[in-house]
Design goal:
Length: 323
Protein backbone atom coordinates (compact mmCIF):
# COMPACT_ATOMS: atom_id res chain seq x y z
CA UNK A 1 0.00 0.00 0.00
CA UNK A 2 1.26 3.45 -0.92
CA UNK A 3 1.96 6.02 1.79
CA UNK A 4 1.48 8.83 -0.74
CA UNK A 5 -1.23 11.42 -0.08
CA UNK A 6 -4.45 10.47 -1.87
CA UNK A 7 -4.73 12.31 -5.19
CA UNK A 8 -7.80 10.69 -6.84
CA UNK A 9 -11.44 11.34 -6.01
CA UNK A 10 -13.57 8.34 -4.98
CA UNK A 11 -17.33 7.88 -4.72
CA UNK A 12 -18.69 4.62 -3.33
CA UNK A 13 -21.89 2.77 -2.58
CA UNK A 14 -22.19 0.39 0.39
CA UNK A 15 -24.96 -2.22 0.49
CA UNK A 16 -25.60 -4.05 3.76
CA UNK A 17 -28.43 -6.05 5.29
CA UNK A 18 -29.85 -6.93 8.67
CA UNK A 19 -31.81 -10.05 9.62
CA UNK A 20 -33.65 -10.21 12.96
CA UNK A 21 -31.55 -7.45 14.45
CA UNK A 22 -31.40 -3.76 15.27
CA UNK A 23 -28.83 -2.05 13.04
CA UNK A 24 -29.06 1.36 14.76
CA UNK A 25 -31.34 2.00 17.73
CA UNK A 26 -32.81 5.44 18.41
CA UNK A 27 -32.27 6.45 22.08
CA UNK A 28 -35.07 9.02 21.77
CA UNK A 29 -37.55 6.28 20.86
CA UNK A 30 -36.80 3.54 23.39
CA UNK A 31 -34.01 2.15 21.17
CA UNK A 32 -36.41 1.35 18.34
CA UNK A 33 -34.68 0.88 14.98
CA UNK A 34 -34.38 4.28 13.33
CA UNK A 35 -36.84 4.96 10.54
CA UNK A 36 -38.09 7.76 8.33
CA UNK A 37 -41.59 8.62 9.61
CA UNK A 38 -42.74 9.66 6.12
CA UNK A 39 -41.86 6.40 4.36
CA UNK A 40 -41.16 3.94 7.22
CA UNK A 41 -37.87 3.13 5.53
CA UNK A 42 -35.13 2.17 7.96
CA UNK A 43 -32.19 4.49 8.64
CA UNK A 44 -28.64 4.05 9.90
CA UNK A 45 -26.74 7.22 10.78
CA UNK A 46 -23.35 8.15 9.39
CA UNK A 47 -22.09 8.28 12.98
CA UNK A 48 -23.06 4.62 13.43
CA UNK A 49 -21.10 3.58 10.32
CA UNK A 50 -18.05 5.57 11.41
CA UNK A 51 -18.26 3.85 14.82
CA UNK A 52 -18.01 0.44 13.11
CA UNK A 53 -14.91 1.58 11.20
CA UNK A 54 -13.30 2.88 14.38
CA UNK A 55 -14.10 -0.33 16.26
CA UNK A 56 -12.51 -2.42 13.49
CA UNK A 57 -9.32 -0.35 13.62
CA UNK A 58 -9.13 -0.77 17.38
CA UNK A 59 -9.44 -4.56 17.01
CA UNK A 60 -7.04 -4.80 14.06
CA UNK A 61 -4.58 -1.89 14.24
CA UNK A 62 -2.33 -1.42 11.26
CA UNK A 63 1.45 -1.37 11.55
CA UNK A 64 3.30 1.93 11.66
CA UNK A 65 6.62 2.18 9.85
CA UNK A 66 9.11 4.94 10.57
CA UNK A 67 8.87 8.04 12.72
CA UNK A 68 7.20 10.08 9.97
CA UNK A 69 4.59 7.45 9.16
CA UNK A 70 0.94 7.94 10.01
CA UNK A 71 -0.34 6.40 13.23
CA UNK A 72 -3.51 4.35 13.51
CA UNK A 73 -4.80 5.18 16.97
CA UNK A 74 -8.47 6.11 17.40
CA UNK A 75 -9.34 9.45 19.00
CA UNK A 76 -13.12 9.07 19.39
CA UNK A 77 -13.60 5.95 21.51
CA UNK A 78 -15.04 4.83 24.83
CA UNK A 79 -13.39 6.61 27.73
CA UNK A 80 -11.30 8.96 25.57
CA UNK A 81 -10.76 12.57 26.68
CA UNK A 82 -10.27 14.71 23.58
CA UNK A 83 -8.78 17.65 25.45
CA UNK A 84 -6.05 15.38 26.87
CA UNK A 85 -4.85 14.45 23.38
CA UNK A 86 -5.28 18.04 22.23
CA UNK A 87 -2.92 19.23 24.94
CA UNK A 88 -0.34 16.64 23.87
CA UNK A 89 -0.55 18.04 20.34
CA UNK A 90 -0.12 21.60 21.58
CA UNK A 91 2.91 20.64 23.66
CA UNK A 92 4.44 18.94 20.63
CA UNK A 93 3.79 22.06 18.53
CA UNK A 94 5.37 24.34 21.13
CA UNK A 95 8.48 22.15 21.26
CA UNK A 96 8.71 21.91 17.47
CA UNK A 97 8.05 25.61 16.79
CA UNK A 98 9.12 27.43 19.99
CA UNK A 99 9.27 30.76 18.15
CA UNK A 100 6.31 30.15 15.87
CA UNK A 101 3.17 32.29 15.84
CA UNK A 102 -0.07 31.06 17.43
CA UNK A 103 -1.43 30.11 14.00
CA UNK A 104 1.74 28.20 13.11
CA UNK A 105 1.63 26.28 16.38
CA UNK A 106 -2.11 25.60 15.94
CA UNK A 107 -1.48 24.18 12.48
CA UNK A 108 1.38 22.03 13.80
CA UNK A 109 -0.87 20.73 16.59
CA UNK A 110 -3.61 19.90 14.07
CA UNK A 111 -1.09 18.10 11.86
CA UNK A 112 0.14 16.05 14.84
CA UNK A 113 -3.40 14.94 15.69
CA UNK A 114 -4.08 13.99 12.07
CA UNK A 115 -0.84 12.03 11.87
CA UNK A 116 -1.43 10.14 15.13
CA UNK A 117 -5.16 9.36 14.82
CA UNK A 118 -6.66 7.54 11.86
CA UNK A 119 -10.20 8.78 12.50
CA UNK A 120 -9.07 12.41 12.72
CA UNK A 121 -7.36 12.44 9.34
CA UNK A 122 -10.19 10.35 7.83
CA UNK A 123 -13.40 11.87 9.22
CA UNK A 124 -12.15 15.11 10.74
CA UNK A 125 -13.25 16.49 14.10
CA UNK A 126 -13.48 19.51 16.39
CA UNK A 127 -10.50 20.06 18.70
CA UNK A 128 -10.91 23.69 19.69
CA UNK A 129 -11.57 23.21 23.41
CA UNK A 130 -9.34 24.15 26.34
CA UNK A 131 -7.25 27.29 26.52
CA UNK A 132 -4.34 26.45 24.19
CA UNK A 133 -3.48 27.64 20.69
CA UNK A 134 -6.23 25.53 19.09
CA UNK A 135 -9.02 27.32 20.99
CA UNK A 136 -10.84 29.59 18.55
CA UNK A 137 -8.37 28.70 15.79
CA UNK A 138 -9.44 27.79 12.26
CA UNK A 139 -7.21 24.73 12.65
CA UNK A 140 -9.36 23.52 15.55
CA UNK A 141 -12.10 22.40 13.15
CA UNK A 142 -10.75 19.68 10.88
CA UNK A 143 -12.80 18.68 7.85
CA UNK A 144 -12.05 15.09 6.92
CA UNK A 145 -11.78 13.80 3.34
CA UNK A 146 -14.20 10.87 3.93
CA UNK A 147 -17.90 11.52 4.46
CA UNK A 148 -20.83 9.09 4.66
CA UNK A 149 -24.51 9.66 4.07
CA UNK A 150 -27.16 8.05 6.25
CA UNK A 151 -27.87 4.46 5.29
CA UNK A 152 -31.47 3.91 4.19
CA UNK A 153 -33.41 0.74 3.52
CA UNK A 154 -34.81 0.21 0.03
CA UNK A 155 -38.25 -0.64 1.38
CA UNK A 156 -40.35 0.12 4.44
CA UNK A 157 -39.52 -1.84 7.58
CA UNK A 158 -41.82 -3.16 10.32
CA UNK A 159 -39.90 -3.20 13.60
CA UNK A 160 -40.96 -5.93 16.01
CA UNK A 161 -40.86 -5.78 19.80
CA UNK A 162 -39.90 -9.19 21.16
CA UNK A 163 -40.47 -10.05 24.82
CA UNK A 164 -37.65 -11.96 26.51
CA UNK A 165 -37.31 -13.60 29.94
CA UNK A 166 -34.41 -14.01 32.34
CA UNK A 167 -34.24 -16.60 35.12
CA UNK A 168 -31.69 -14.58 37.13
CA UNK A 169 -32.55 -11.32 38.90
CA UNK A 170 -30.55 -8.17 39.44
CA UNK A 171 -31.56 -7.02 42.91
CA UNK A 172 -31.72 -8.89 46.23
CA UNK A 173 -35.31 -7.70 46.63
CA UNK A 174 -36.28 -9.70 43.55
CA UNK A 175 -34.62 -12.95 44.69
CA UNK A 176 -37.94 -14.71 45.20
CA UNK A 177 -39.10 -14.03 41.65
CA UNK A 178 -38.82 -16.95 39.27
CA UNK A 179 -37.91 -14.74 36.32
CA UNK A 180 -37.82 -11.18 35.06
CA UNK A 181 -39.14 -9.83 31.77
CA UNK A 182 -37.58 -7.62 29.15
CA UNK A 183 -37.91 -6.73 25.51
CA UNK A 184 -35.82 -6.08 22.44
CA UNK A 185 -36.56 -4.49 19.08
CA UNK A 186 -35.64 -6.12 15.79
CA UNK A 187 -36.03 -5.63 12.05
CA UNK A 188 -37.05 -8.97 10.48
CA UNK A 189 -35.16 -8.13 7.28
CA UNK A 190 -33.95 -5.04 5.42
CA UNK A 191 -31.36 -4.15 2.80
CA UNK A 192 -29.72 -0.75 3.26
CA UNK A 193 -27.59 1.50 1.07
CA UNK A 194 -25.19 4.22 2.21
CA UNK A 195 -23.08 6.47 0.01
CA UNK A 196 -19.57 7.70 0.64
CA UNK A 197 -17.36 10.38 -0.83
CA UNK A 198 -13.58 10.84 -0.64
CA UNK A 199 -12.09 14.24 -1.45
CA UNK A 200 -8.38 14.49 -2.34
CA UNK A 201 -8.54 18.24 -1.65
CA UNK A 202 -9.22 17.57 2.04
CA UNK A 203 -6.90 14.56 2.03
CA UNK A 204 -4.04 16.97 1.37
CA UNK A 205 -4.97 18.94 4.49
CA UNK A 206 -5.13 15.96 6.86
CA UNK A 207 -2.44 13.72 5.35
CA UNK A 208 -4.89 11.00 4.31
CA UNK A 209 -3.00 8.47 2.15
CA UNK A 210 -3.72 5.76 -0.41
CA UNK A 211 -2.89 3.23 2.33
CA UNK A 212 -5.47 4.86 4.61
CA UNK A 213 -8.10 4.49 1.89
CA UNK A 214 -7.34 0.80 1.45
CA UNK A 215 -7.62 0.34 5.20
CA UNK A 216 -10.97 2.15 5.20
CA UNK A 217 -12.37 -0.18 2.54
CA UNK A 218 -11.04 -3.19 4.44
CA UNK A 219 -12.85 -1.96 7.55
CA UNK A 220 -16.10 -1.42 5.65
CA UNK A 221 -16.02 -4.91 4.20
CA UNK A 222 -15.36 -6.61 7.55
CA UNK A 223 -16.90 -4.28 10.12
CA UNK A 224 -19.96 -6.42 10.84
CA UNK A 225 -17.97 -9.66 11.05
CA UNK A 226 -16.44 -8.46 14.33
CA UNK A 227 -19.43 -6.55 15.68
CA UNK A 228 -21.72 -9.47 16.48
CA UNK A 229 -24.09 -9.02 19.39
CA UNK A 230 -27.55 -10.10 20.51
CA UNK A 231 -28.91 -7.05 18.68
CA UNK A 232 -26.77 -7.43 15.54
CA UNK A 233 -26.24 -11.13 15.12
CA UNK A 234 -26.71 -11.23 11.38
CA UNK A 235 -25.54 -8.14 9.52
CA UNK A 236 -23.75 -8.63 6.21
CA UNK A 237 -22.07 -6.35 3.67
CA UNK A 238 -23.52 -7.30 0.29
CA UNK A 239 -21.73 -4.84 -1.95
CA UNK A 240 -19.05 -2.14 -1.98
CA UNK A 241 -18.82 -0.31 -5.31
CA UNK A 242 -15.91 2.14 -5.47
CA UNK A 243 -15.75 4.60 -8.39
CA UNK A 244 -12.22 5.94 -8.72
CA UNK A 245 -11.60 9.02 -10.88
CA UNK A 246 -8.35 8.50 -12.82
CA UNK A 247 -8.50 11.14 -15.58
CA UNK A 248 -9.37 11.01 -19.27
CA UNK A 249 -6.10 12.16 -20.80
CA UNK A 250 -3.29 10.19 -22.38
CA UNK A 251 -0.48 9.17 -20.06
CA UNK A 252 1.73 11.79 -21.71
CA UNK A 253 -0.54 14.53 -20.33
CA UNK A 254 0.14 13.71 -16.68
CA UNK A 255 -0.63 17.13 -15.24
CA UNK A 256 -4.08 17.37 -16.83
CA UNK A 257 -4.81 13.79 -15.80
CA UNK A 258 -3.86 14.62 -12.22
CA UNK A 259 -6.15 17.65 -12.24
CA UNK A 260 -9.09 15.64 -13.61
CA UNK A 261 -8.54 12.81 -11.13
CA UNK A 262 -8.56 15.31 -8.28
CA UNK A 263 -11.58 17.25 -9.53
CA UNK A 264 -13.56 14.27 -10.82
CA UNK A 265 -14.49 12.98 -14.25
CA UNK A 266 -18.24 12.40 -13.74
CA UNK A 267 -20.99 13.37 -11.31
CA UNK A 268 -21.17 11.12 -8.26
CA UNK A 269 -24.95 10.68 -8.41
CA UNK A 270 -24.81 9.50 -12.03
CA UNK A 271 -22.19 6.89 -11.18
CA UNK A 272 -23.95 5.57 -8.07
CA UNK A 273 -27.30 5.36 -9.86
CA UNK A 274 -25.75 2.81 -12.22
CA UNK A 275 -26.04 0.23 -9.43
CA UNK A 276 -29.66 -0.93 -9.64
CA UNK A 277 -31.45 -2.65 -6.76
CA UNK A 278 -34.98 -4.00 -7.19
CA UNK A 279 -37.28 -6.68 -5.84
CA UNK A 280 -37.42 -9.92 -7.77
CA UNK A 281 -40.50 -10.55 -9.89
CA UNK A 282 -43.57 -11.43 -7.86
CA UNK A 283 -42.17 -10.07 -4.58
CA UNK A 284 -43.85 -7.16 -2.77
CA UNK A 285 -41.82 -7.14 0.44
CA UNK A 286 -38.33 -8.57 1.02
CA UNK A 287 -37.71 -11.43 3.43
CA UNK A 288 -34.09 -12.17 2.49
CA UNK A 289 -31.36 -11.04 0.13
CA UNK A 290 -32.54 -13.66 -2.36
CA UNK A 291 -35.66 -11.54 -2.89
CA UNK A 292 -33.54 -8.73 -4.35
CA UNK A 293 -31.94 -8.31 -7.73
CA UNK A 294 -28.75 -6.21 -7.66
CA UNK A 295 -27.32 -5.31 -11.05
CA UNK A 296 -24.28 -3.30 -12.01
CA UNK A 297 -25.15 -1.63 -15.31
CA UNK A 298 -21.61 -0.35 -15.86
CA UNK A 299 -19.31 -2.11 -18.31
CA UNK A 300 -16.05 -1.17 -19.99
CA UNK A 301 -18.10 0.05 -22.96
CA UNK A 302 -20.46 2.43 -21.12
CA UNK A 303 -18.45 3.45 -18.03
CA UNK A 304 -17.79 7.22 -18.26
CA UNK A 305 -14.32 8.14 -19.45
CA UNK A 306 -11.79 8.57 -16.69
CA UNK A 307 -13.62 6.28 -14.24
CA UNK A 308 -12.39 2.97 -12.86
CA UNK A 309 -14.95 0.87 -10.97
CA UNK A 310 -13.65 -1.35 -8.16
CA UNK A 311 -16.06 -4.03 -6.99
CA UNK A 312 -14.42 -4.24 -3.58
CA UNK A 313 -16.71 -7.01 -2.33
CA UNK A 314 -15.80 -9.20 -5.28
CA UNK A 315 -12.12 -8.29 -5.61
CA UNK A 316 -12.50 -7.28 -9.28
CA UNK A 317 -12.41 -4.04 -11.26
CA UNK A 318 -13.75 -2.56 -14.49
CA UNK A 319 -11.07 -0.55 -16.25
CA UNK A 320 -11.70 2.93 -17.68
CA UNK A 321 -13.02 3.26 -21.20
CA UNK A 322 -10.37 4.14 -23.73
CA UNK A 323 -10.68 6.61 -26.59
Amino acid sequence: MSSSILTNRHDFLLLFEVTNGNPNGDPDAGNLPRLDPNTNRGMVTDVCLKRKVRNFLELFPSAREGEAANGFSILIKQGAVIEREQKKAEVHAAQTLPKGSADQQAEAAKNWLCREFFDMRTFGGVVSTGDGVLKGSAFGQVRGPVQFTFGQSFHAITPLEVTITRCAVTKEDDAKKERTMGNKHIVPYALYAAKGYVSPAFAERTGFTDADLELLFQALLHMFEHDRSAARGEMIVRGLYDFEHVGTQHANNAEQNKREARLGCAHAHALLEGIKVSLSAGKTSPESFADYSVSNTWTTENLPKGIKLHLRHAGTSIDPRQG
